[in-house]
């Protein structure tokens, strides 16, 4: 294993922060896989899964079973880890700008098209290799005028040329679920089987330029720009894995999730096995992210959930009571669609406009930005 410290741009004189990446296997001998934990630094389950993964990856490397390179970033947000305020942990938004740490990643399409267009041709494999190298160069060349942009550039440079990118997050309270794109669903289905995900949400553009889409959608955009005479298949399957809820920081869950990811690496041929692994049964069919409908609080108040995460509901099912502590008025929110109640907030007092939970339906009903803030 090779451990690399990546210094970030200091926010003020006399301070320093660095991102740490762990590199297993040998670059160039097989696929490159990039896995990072807790880009939202207040979502700890990803860090714990990375803790278990590093032990498994080291054992596989020692046994000579890795084919290619696995880059593991165990804590993807050292800036967010430092953000404590009045005994409360604030790892989702950067203090200075207010920006979500998982938004506004660079679109490298223009830079890559300019670099490769004179060289691409009719051979798809050659085009993929050209684009992969150009993506790595373009990420390293990104400007950074502050610490947050420095972090984004470093994370993108570590992952942009990978064949698989896994971004480990968690919801407030929820089922194990993933976000990915329709173009990569045949590959992502294997991941869903291996980790036992119970919901798979698909969208080409969820809005806000999150990390996973910056790594995967750029391939489709480049392919469109190059045209049919320079075929370019999707070169990156990127997925955000939501590891249940923020409070699910348990060794048994993290060990099972790490085992599922290793099973996926076996299925991809990154981990050598004597025989192809038998894939577990698929626990869900994919549904559109635009069919995931939030429960939005029309008023503030105490939050009393009437349904548990994992329940299937029908439109009109009572889901949550909002109680005004001053007037005793009770407002009951009902399920907006038929579907699976797969995630809910872990706070029990709401402000008006707050999203309290999500029901995954099968119909694409929303448009515009599809992710929560």
TrEMBL record:
Q: Does the keyword Nucleotide-binding apply?
A: no
Enumerate the InterPro entries for this protein.
AstE_AspA_cat, N-alpha-Ac-DABA_deacetylase
Q: Which UniProt keywords apply?
A: Hydrolase, Metal-binding, Zinc
* Gene3D superfamilies registered for this protein in UniProt: Zn peptidases
Is ATP-binding a UniProt keyword of this protein? no
Report the Pfam families cross-referenced here: AstE_AspA_cat
Limits of the Succinylglutamate desuccinylase/Aspartoacylase catalytic domain: 30-266
Look up the record and name the cofactor or cofactors this protein needs: Zn(2+)
How is this protein named in the record? Succinylglutamate desuccinylase/aspartoacylase family protein
This protein's species is Ideonella margarita
């Amino acid at each position: 294993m090779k451990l690399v410290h990546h210094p970030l741009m200091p926010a003020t004189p006399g301070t320093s922060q660095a991102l740490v990446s762990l590199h297993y296997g040998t670059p160039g001998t097989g696929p490159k896989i990039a896995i990072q934990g807790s880009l939202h630094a207040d979502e700890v389950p990803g860090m714990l899964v990375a803790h278990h993964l590093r032990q498994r990856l080291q054992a596989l490397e020692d046994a000579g079973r890795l084919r290619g390179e696995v880059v593991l970033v165990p804590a993807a947000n050292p800036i967010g880890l430092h953000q404590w305020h009045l005994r409360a942990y604030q790892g989702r938004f950067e203090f200075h700008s207010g920006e979500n740490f998982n938004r506004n990643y660079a679109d490298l399409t223009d830079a890559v098209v300019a670099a490769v267009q004179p060289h691409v041709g009719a051979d798809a494999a050659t085009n993929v290799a050209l684009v992969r190298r150009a993506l790595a160069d373009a990420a390293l060349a990104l400007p950074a005028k502050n610490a947050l942009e420095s972090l984004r550039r470093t994370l993108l440079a570590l992952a942009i040329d990978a064949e698989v990118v896994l971004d480990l997050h968690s919801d407030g309270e929820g089922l194990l679920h993933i976000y990915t794109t329709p173009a990569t669903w045949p590959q992502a289905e294997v991941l869903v089987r291996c980790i036992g995900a119970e919901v798979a949400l698909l969208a080409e553009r969820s809005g806000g330029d999150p990390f996973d889409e910056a790594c995967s959608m750029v391939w489709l955009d480049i392919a469109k720009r190059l045209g049919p005479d320079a075929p370019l298949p999707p070169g990156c399957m990127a997925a955000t894995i939501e590891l249940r809820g923020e409070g699910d920081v348990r060794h048994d869950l993290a060990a099972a999730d790490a085992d599922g990811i290793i099973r996926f690496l076996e299925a991809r041929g990154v981990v050598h096995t004597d025989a192809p692994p038998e894939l577990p049964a698929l626990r869900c069919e994919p549904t559109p992210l635009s069919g995931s409908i939030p429960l939005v609080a029309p008023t503030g108040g105490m939050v009393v959930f009437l349904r548990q995460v994992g329940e299937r509901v029908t439109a009109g099912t009572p889901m949550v009571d909002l109680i005004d502590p001053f007037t005793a008025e009770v407002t009951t929110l009902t399920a907006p669609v038929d579907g699976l109640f797969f995630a809910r907030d872990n706070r029990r007092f709401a402000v008006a406009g707050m999203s309290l939970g999500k029901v995954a339906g099968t119909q694409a009903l929303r448009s515009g930005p599809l992710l929560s803030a």
